[in-house]
Write a structure and sequence with these properties.
With 177 residues, the chain is α/β, with parallel strands linked by helices. 21% of the residues lie in helices and 32% in strands. The strands form 2 sheets. Strands 4-3-2-5-6-7 form a 6-stranded mixed beta sheet, sandwiched between helices. A 3-stranded antiparallel beta sheet has the order 1-9-8. The mean pLDDT is 93. Bound molecules: 1-O-pyrophosphono-5-O-phosphono-alpha-D-ribofuranose. The site of 1-O-pyrophosphono-5-O-phosphono-alpha-D-ribofuranose has 19 residues, from strand 2, strand 5 and helix 3.
Length: 177
């Protein structure tokens, strides 16, 4: 049976998201933004963050191949869905729920740079720095976390738990995970 232990509460998340929104609002004062969410984990963070940004802002979404049900990254990233509208000359903020090895972000930065944006920044709620294999970083990072399997606030295990309001560590005896 899965056991959940709260790591970051909904109140801590809300306070952090508000701070990040304020920073982005100040950094891009007088300009417009495109928030690009990476499906599916980033959707909850994007929805909350967008409402803390007091600027002319639109959304778009991209999708890449994912971990599926395994805990290990295969090392291969494939683009499943690109942005719907041109972002050439626009200020982009790529929105991620979590930075892990950095393989996904490295790939996505190349994809998005090829669209010739005016600027390209990364907002990530969580950062598992100890897992990093690629030289990437987030520009707006919420929480550095230890190397534990986290779910909630958009993050899943086999598509479950994305709807939990808190970020929780998934603890289980099961060897199937
Ligand atoms: C997560 C997260 C990032 C990626 C980070 O997505 O949203 O896209 O993993 O890992 P990396 O730094 O090791 O590349 P996931 O594949 O779990 O898909 P999901 O967003 O649909 O849950």
């Amino acid at each position: 049976m899965d056991k959940l232990r709260v790591l970051i509460t909904r109140e801590q998340i809300a306070a952090k998201v508000a701070q990040i929104g304020e920073r982005i609002t100040a950094d891009f004062a007088g300009e417009s933004l495109v928030l690009i969410g990476v499906l599916k984990g980033a959707t909850v963070f994007l929805a909350d963050l967008a409402r803390q940004i007091k600027l002319d802002t639109t959304f778009d979404f991209i999708a890449v191949s994912s971990y599926a049900n395994a805990r290990q990254h295969s090392g291969e990233v494939r683009l499943l869905k690109d942005v719907d509208r041109s972002v050439e000359g626009r200020n982009i903020i790529l929105v991620e729920d979590i930075l892990d090895t950095g393989l996904t972000l490295t790939y996505l930065m190349n994809v998005l740079q090829a669209h010739r944006p005016r600027s390209l920044k990364v907002a990530a709620l969580l950062d598992k720095i100890s897992r990093r294999t690629e030289p990437i970083h987030g520009d707006y990072v919420g929480f550095a976390i230890p190397d534990e399997f986290v779910v909630g606030y958009g993050l899943d295990f086999a598509e479950r738990y994305r709807n939990l309001p808190d970020i929780c560590v998934l603890e289980s005896d099961s060897e199937t995970r």
